[in-house]
Amino acid sequence: MDISRRKALGLLGLGGGIGLAGCSTTENLTGAPGKSPVEVSFEHGVASGDATSAAVILWTRVTPAEKVESSLSVQVVMATSRGLVEGLETGASTEPGWTGIVRQTSTSASRDYTVKLDMDGLDDDQVYFFRFMVDTPSGPVWSPIGKTRTLPATGGDKLALAVVSCSNWPFGFFNVYKAIAQRDDVDAVVHLGDYIYEYGIDGYGGEVGERLGRRHDPVTEIVTLEDYRTRHRQYKSDPDLQAAHAAAPWYCTWDDHESTNNSYRVGAENHNPEENEGDWTTRKQIAVQAYFEWMPVREPVSGMAREAFYRKVDFGDLATIFLLESRLLGRSEEISWFDELTMDMSMPELMAKAGEVRARVDDPSRTMLGQVQEDWLNKGLKSSVETGRTWQLLANQVIMAEVRIPPLQQMLTAEEKAKIAGGFGEMMMAFAPLNQPWNLDAWDGFPAARKRLYTSAKEAGARIVTVTGDTHTAWANELNDGDDLVGVEFGCTSVSSPGMGMSVPLERLGPLTAEANKDVVWHDPFGSGFTMLTLTPEKAVADFYKVTTILEKDFEVEWVAGYESSADANGMSPLKSVV
């Protein structure tokens, strides 16, 4: 509903108390705007996400001063200029001739007072500014202002995405989010999962969090709905995360830690019913509910499983973005070397056991996505190519390239071996002679499923660009199917979770990994940062950035490396370093 400034002020309780009827909301709540019975605040910022050419999700959370049984009426204002929404607290916009959009919804304790609207009927390729308002006993209370944009319906000559993953509260400050918020060239942010972590203060990151004053809340591992909601509240309270959300629309996928570590369809490594954590189905449903309440994402349509959190969006004629779900919907049961091998095994025993494990890993029935999602992706790749889009971008949680540990025993100096003795690096050295993929939680643990994806991409004639999180390290990979280049993969490092370089402090680990693996062009296992992916009709370019520290709030941003692939009539080129 487009309205004039004078009418908007009345609808917002600033000029005459006019009621707003017939407005679309994602909550299917009706009725005229009403006054909140209690004072409220906006303590968790604003966000937008899952933008299309005609719609975008807007999100916030209202914090009531005390618990209320009734619902709270919330209104959102949206306009094409920041000045049009800045002056509304005083009843006067900073620009004359106010026009914009006002819509109404409600929230309540049943959804933890979060607010989410699917704002449709928007112009394509348009920047919008938005904010929320609740009318309280002391007057209107306004949220901060957010900036979002819709995608072009056709054309589109450039798409710039800030790609992030793995933001662990206790391990450090969210300087990476601040760095992204301060850029003026970000069309959207892609978060590839591990947006929150489930551990208590006695778990992963707890000691660092104590030193930094960033203890997880609640202090125990999260299991109940209130636990998950509380953890989301804590993360969304961070001012740097709020700034990044307010700066651009986000496209989010979950990985495992939004539920619990190494989750799959019927279980998880870090779910323990014997420790009063309940049954897995209940915990999974609770985690999904809290995620959908607290994230600016479009939820699966009615009739689909709640875990079916995969979707696609077209950026004009330039690209189709496929956001994959690889954890809770279809993923086969975990196979882990840590459960199968022990350090006291002899080499013949290790070789024999590794062969047994590899036979299970190679089982063609193992799936990462599930059959329904595989079929959806197959059709989507074909449709994207047939409609003339240059790039097919996969927002993917775990490393797709084939990766083996380099033969460290032969490659390392005596000094380097001594440096990693007794730790994780020594375990890697012992494993390397088996010449097996190391990370079975990644696509290396699902080779038949990866082969099916590669076949779909080749049959469609797709130019695959994959962006990946999970490993807390940076990658530039070429995805090879035999002698065929299927696509490229850019793995982003973490917002704050520690990478392999923390456990294996070898300066040469990245180059040695690239030397030992055909798919790996470049690898950096150190530091926290983000990747800027820029797509044009000619090229896909990834620029890797790091922040100098996450242990204090003063930091610098450093460009680390860049790699690009060019589009051509036959597909795409191998990666080339950008200096």
Can you tag this structure with a few keywords?
single chain, 579 residues, alpha+beta, Immunoglobulin-like, Purple Acid Phosphatase, chain A, domain 2, 2 domains, eight-stranded mixed sheet, seven-stranded mixed sheet, 16 helices, globular, disordered N terminus
Task: Provide structural commentary.
- The protein is of the alpha+beta class and 579 residues long.
- It folds into 2 domains: 2-149, Sandwich (Immunoglobulin-like); 159-577, 4-Layer Sandwich (Purple Acid Phosphatase, chain A, domain 2), CATH 3.60.21.
- Helix content is 24%, strand content 26%.
- The strands form 6 sheets. Strands 12, 13, 14, 24, 25, 26, 27 and 28 form an 8-stranded mixed beta sheet that branches.
- A hairpin with a 3-residue loop joins strand 17 and strand 18.
